[in-house]
Structures are given as structure tokens and as C-alpha cells.
Amino acid sequence: xxxxxxxxxxxLELVRVTEAGALAxxxxxxxxxxxxxxxxxxxxxxxxxxxxxxxxxxxxxxxEKDEAPMLFNGEKLGTGSAPAVDIAVDPINGTRPLADxxxxxxxxxxxxxxxxxxxxxxxxxxxxxxxxxxxxxVIDINAPVxxxxxxIAKAKDMHVKDLTVVIxxxxxxxxxxxxxxxxxxxxxxxxxxDVAGALMTAWPEAGIDVLMGIGGTPEGVLxxxxxxxxxxxxxxxxxxxNATDKELGKQLGYDFDQVLTxxxxxxxxxxxxAATGITDGExxxxxxxxxxxxxxxxxxxxxxxxxxxxIISRHNFEKLNPxxxxxx
Length: 328
Known about the structure:
With 328 residues, this protein is α+β, with helices and mostly antiparallel strands. It has 10 helices and 13 strands.
């Protein structure tokens, strides 16, 4: 038996990043200002990320596809000292729900050893299926919907009619929704935020059994980092929107038929993930403001140990604002 000394848990430092992003973006709930909310989250998260002792490079950024403010791919963050890590970040997973005052908007960030994260290049969309621990090892993204639902139900000792499938509410999912309905399973449609959707499958309190459908590639990598620590599983396949995507993929050496497993998406157990709720949802409570402060709820996940922490924080703005470069 090896009695190893405790090592540095970077997830406990990352939660300060997502808390900062959530506190800054939470002010924009329901105000219809997507880009202003994005910028507030990005500025706050970048400030805290640059205070962490690490040599970090953004591999999975967000914002390029819609020209929103972002932590851009290739950006260097941290103090420049060891460890050398990759970063995946989505300052607001669920920008539209936040802008419209809907559920399940969260701030997320993950890190892994340098070179461990899948780099999707210019391809922003991915077909995915994700499950929690009980159904790990029984899913197949190439199998028909009914086959996956039968296997998931069997693994969870449930009937298919008891399962709840979370799906992004998009026209492209019309057939998927029809197929799930034909199987008799329940459906939870979400307007955005499929990182939260994937994590819900491994969070019993959320009541979600499987995520299916086409969402963002950055979100797929972030979800893989979290599910590493939650002992869940995600499979994905890059999604070509048109012939131009297919031709570009061929030129760059990407295979749209390849099944991207957990090991493809993040090839290390030594991952760290943090998420903080911005608006209320099945996964996390959103930011609650009160006189001179706010309350946040976060998930902090360490892949190597499988430790998942739920952190409730109370922030005192009278003490925080005089010493912070970001006004909360």
C-alpha cells in the first residue's frame, strides 16, 4: 500500500475563477445583454486565472464561433511557473438562458496536463451521448436511440419509461426527439448549456439519466474533464455542418466518423474542474444577491481522486470590492 502525500488540488483554486465569473455575469440575468455578460465573466475569470501559479495555455476557448468576448485559443494564463497545463473554459455555459433569465447557466473551467486535451481545431460542433456512473460502459454513440436507452435503463435497474433524456432544443434534433418519444422516455429540453446537461447525468439530485444530441465541441471537452472525476462517461463525434466542413476536415486530418472516447477528449485522470451556478438549475443554484454581498454554489471536481465537492460561498462586497480590480 502506497501512502502518498497529498498533492496540490488546483480545483480548489479554480473555484475562485468560476465564482468570479458567476458574480460578474450574474448581474446581467434577464437583461438581454449577452455580450456584456460574456465580457464581464471573461474579464473576471482572466484576472483570477492569471493569479494562479501555473503555466497554462487555452486549448478550448469559447466565443470564436459567435465573435463574443472570450478567453481565446492559444492565450497564455497563470504566473508562468509549473505545472504546465491546458485549459478548457466556458465563461458562461448558457449565455442565452442568462440573458433571458432562464435556468441552467453556469461558469466553467477545467485544466489538465499539457497535451492531454483534445484540440478540435475549427470544428465547433459534436454529436454526444453522456451518462453517469451507473450506465458507464454500456453506451454506444453509433447505436440506435432505443438500444442505448434499453442498455441505460437495464444498467440503472429502471424501465425506459422512467428515464429522462436531456436534449438541446434545436431544429436539428427534431428526429432525435421523435425517436426518444417513440421509446416512451421522458425529455428535458434545454435552450443552451450542455456542459450542465452532461454533468446532470452524474448528479443524482438532478434527475437526468442521459444527454443526447449535437452540441458544442468545447462543451464536450469540458464535460469530459468533469465526468472523469464523477466516474461518468461521454462519447462524441465531430459534426460537419456542410460540405465545406467535411472538406476542411479532410485537409486537416480530422475524421468525422471517429468515436471520441473519454481518453480522446482528455487523456489524463489528473484533471481539475470547477463550475459555479449563475442562474438556478437542476445542477446548481444561481447567484443570490443580498445587501452588500452574494451567495454562490459551486462544484469542484478532482479526477485523480474522484472527489466531488459542493461549495457554498458567501461573498462580502464591502471587503471584496476595495481590493478587487473587478467591481462585483
